[in-house]
Amino acid sequence: MSIKAYDFYKDICGLQDEKFIQEIADITERRCLKKGEFVVRVGEALNDVCFLETGISRGYLLDASGRDITDCFSFRGGSAVMPFCQMELDIPSPMAIEMLEDGSIFCVPISGVIRLQKTYAEVTMFYNRLLIQALNEHWRLKQILNQYTAIQRYQWFLQEYPGLIDRVSNKHIASFIGMTPVTLSRLRRTLRENQEQK
Asked: Which InterPro entries does the record cross-reference, listed alphabetically (predicted)?
């Protein structure tokens, strides 16, 4: 059963000002997306602030040869599903965000967020909280990619993204943690064999 937008913002996102919650809920649209559908593609404008309700999404960038490099996964309800440079209208997205499972997102027009920001201080506080969270996650990933061995990166992924190993393709996970799909498959097999021998 799906949650109402008001309850989502209050209970999942932790907003407190009830008048603000009601106003943002009133301009929120729930979108149901199928596996493989895009929230936004590279170069498209995303004129909404989007939050994951259900499902899994993957954000990716394109390298110089056009290969996609996984930048992030969203799988917890309340996670922002958007590039954080997108708080202006009609800005081309530097990344694509696709659904890896059927799911739903709550979308709020950026124009509405800008309007509410003039009245409610909680809008800026909430956005800053999301920015800090995203910055911390990306900084931590950079540290992991540069300081951990392949097996340590894999174990970190298992801990930080519980259950995703069985729901997301090896290709996307390998890209995210900086290794080839072959290396990831080998690691998984080796760890599985070690556990069976215990």
From this structure: cNMP-bd_dom, cNMP-bd_dom_sf, RmlC-like_jellyroll
| Bridge partners (DSSP) listed for residue 92 | 45
Region 84-107 average pLDDT: 85
Is-contact 80 51, C-beta < 8 A?
yes
Paired strand residues for 29: 107
Q: How far apart are CA 78 and CA 69, in angstroms?
A: 24
Measuring CA to CA, which residue among 196, 197, 164 is closest to residue 184?
164
CA angle 106, 48, 23 (to 5 degrees): 65
Q: Give the burial string for 131-165 (b: 16+ CB within 10 Å, else e).
A: eeebeeeeeebeebeeeeebeebbebbeeebeebe
Q: Give CA angle at 137 (76, 42), nearest 5°.
A: 80
Q: pLDDT digits over 125-178, tens only?
A: 998 888 888 889 889 999 999 999 999 999 999 999 999 999 999 999 999 999
Burial of 127 (0-12, 13-18, 19+ CB in 10 A): middle
pLDDT range class, residue 108, cuts 50, 70, 90? very high
